[in-house]
Design brief:
Strand content: 5-15%
Strand order of the largest sheet: 1-2-5-3-4
Mean pLDDT: 86
Low-confidence stretches: none
Distance between the termini: 26 Å
Radius of gyration: 14 Å
Number of strands: 5
Order of helices and strands: HEEHEHHEHEH
Oligomer: single chain
Number of helices: 6
Length: 141
Amino acid sequence: TPQDLLHDCSLIVTTTSSREPLLQYTSDIQHPLHITCIGSDATGKRELDPKLVASADLLVADCKLVTQERGEFEDVLKQQLVSLDNIVELGKFIEKKELHRQRRKTDGEDDCRLTIFDSSGVAVQDCVIAAMVNEALMQRG
């Protein structure tokens, strides 16, 4: 089931037009976990449970303005489960290396964050992200 992915995977990519959450919040999510949501964005589109989104350690969107109007973060912002200030724009994320997932932190512990990226459909960004994810997976082996 889709819910099993939260326990069995470290990377999930959603590509649906669902208006009902496919992945529900659970307290025993596999960490580290990254979820990229690239399904067709429209007002009311939801692939993730708002509680799951609110539990994330890092939220990234390609555009803060757009993410308020549609996509995975629309609902959590309206419900005030997260603030717009808690969402990092993709450009800022790329600039700030300290936000990137680290294989080993300076204290020697693994980076076990739940991170979520919601793409509203900027095709060039989608291609770069796909290439970065592929490169990271290839390096991981």
